[in-house]
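Bench notes, bay 3.
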Amino acid sequence: MTDFPRAEYEARLETANRAMHANSLDAILLASEAEVRYFTGFRTQFWQSPTRPWFVILRRDQTPLAIIPEIGAELMARSDIAEIEAWPAPRPHDDGLSLLKDRLGNCQRLGVLMGHETTFRMPLNDVFELRAALPAEWIDATDIIRDLRMVKSDREIAYIRQICGIASQGFARVPEIANAGHSLSSVFREFKRMLLELGADDVPYLVGGVDHPSYDDVISPPDDRPLSNGQILMLDTGATLNGYFCDFDRNYAVGTPTKSAQRAYAKLYDATDAAMEMARPGVRACDLFAAMAKSMDTQNSDVGRFGHGLGMQLTEWPSLAAWDETIIRENMVLTLEPSIGVDGGGIMVTEENILITDGVPILLSTRAPKELPLL
């Protein structure tokens, strides 16, 4: 049983096969969770353990081959992969290596993900040994997989829309769990619980911050400091449903916010509007960055970008950054995430999730209020 019907995976494989022909690749070797799941539907928490590697070989004009630990063979058999070879992992002296050598021995041009935002989940010593043993030339297949995954199918969009709706409901109820005197750690715990009760499968990502006149750290674990009047609280969640993420945040003033916090929030709201006005097929990712930067009268971002792609992973290609010239296409799902410094100290970040259409983009997250919400 997978998250999509067989036709969805067949379409992905056929597109990959055409790309292999166009790039004269005999095969593509996949060894990362998102790519394996994208082509097979194999979804499991076992990827969290570093003990066992997992491989799928996309073979030109043939069905894919899974080379995986024996413990995953039954689940993989429920996917759309008919050919599975397994070994009793962990077996450090040969964790699938001999199987890979055998099955790739006749390959002349092998595609492997080597580019930005990719990983090859295999011990480096095994990578060196495999590369030395194979006659194949190793070719970077990042662009092939990137182009496939950036544009979402209707079913993928439906999952993202649904989890965005769940998170939007949760954010609307934050005043029930966050007020002056509540600790940041308790707010985090209660917000996760709320999202699960609303229907999220998991909340693997929840970050945020709180401070006066605004927060300056959005990646540290929450502590037990109580919220107090004049602070800004920010929560940013990546909840999941059927393996697909939402990723957006909300800001709240605890009591009366400072004028500087209100001004920053208004600038961020306008910056998001500027990006929404421009977000159409044919513009570049860097154009959206520039539109937000111009709206806020800045030329750069301390965090490097003002948004990114979204889907099976919390952050995906492209980056809404000055250096990314990726052409925006219909059915991409993007986050718009401008950030700005706050006079008197701290930063502020806002984020929305949008779907690119052939016209006006569609908000998948319920738009944040135009005025800074008060707790």
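Next record in the batch:
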Amino acid sequence: MTGRIDPWRAELPENYARLMEEFGISSFEEILPDIPDPMPIMRRRIIFGHRDFRRILERMLGGEDFAVMTGLMPSGKMHLGHKMVIDQLIWYQRMRGVKMFLCVADLEAYSARGLSLAEARRIAVEEYLANYDALGLDLTKCRVYFQSEDEHVKRLAFLLSKRVTLSELRAIYGFTIESNLSSLFYPMIDVADILHPQLPEFCGPIPTVVPVGIDQDPHLRLARDMAGRFQKEFGFIPPSATYHKLLPGLIEEKMSSSKPEGAIFLTDDEETVRRKIMNAFTGGKPTAAEQRREGGNPDICRVFDLYFYHLIPDDRRLLEVREMCREGRIICGECKQMAVELLLDFLREYRVKYARSLERVRSAFGDPDATDKS
């Protein structure tokens, strides 16, 4: 039976290899040796799959123009799981010839999460754009736009919708007769986001990569189909994509803003960070004595996931911590305390940057509080 990936649910895929085979996603490992200075999340196979990334790689190696397109849905607090995309954007931004497009998916927040456009804007500015800036992304070198305000994207979405049927959308997204019209039409907005860098008003036909979690693949498949259907009119090149694994939550499922106890938010205070990590699921044994004797299992440990995805960029040190766990040379309480210290060290420095970034972003995109009062 054909599986389905849902962009709007907080579930972890059970088997990434099966999804790759079922949906025709190529292995990123095959092209990894050709990538200069790969990111840790590339080396560690966290970025595990791609569609047509070699087309982008050739442009990167040749110093030729290419585009990077990504988006954010401002529906809650920004957490560590979101950081993977920003890290990739920063990596791409160092490349010669890159054109970067960053969409604020406020229409998606309205349709899928029930937020007003004003509230979505406030969250976008304070929780996302300010954090992107603080993490090191140069927003002045990105085309940052809000879906609700961008006529290029809205017009393209309407044009593209001419060649998509309801049965196709139901097959891809699982829509039912109970789905509202905004939900049914929203995928066309997302597809227009992905393809609009190739409009003549921007770059024209250009190789474009979209770095996403595997949960966003339905939008990429539809966008690639639409690029083919409108190739004659626009000259669209099917967009490329890279796929990263989803950061597990501290307790269950993927890390999600809708499950705060399982997520580390970049704005969490120190006591909250400490509590969440101390309550995280681990691969330890019932008693410290058993763990000293038999060792733990880092492969199912959510604290080790934090090391693997974010907190320990040095591969040799990461393997050392893994072996310490497996051999019982470190027990869960000690390991959690180490994670707390690493994370708090990062957040203390980060909060200073965030305060400066928030001021810059409010100046560039408007102060939501001032807007709401007017």
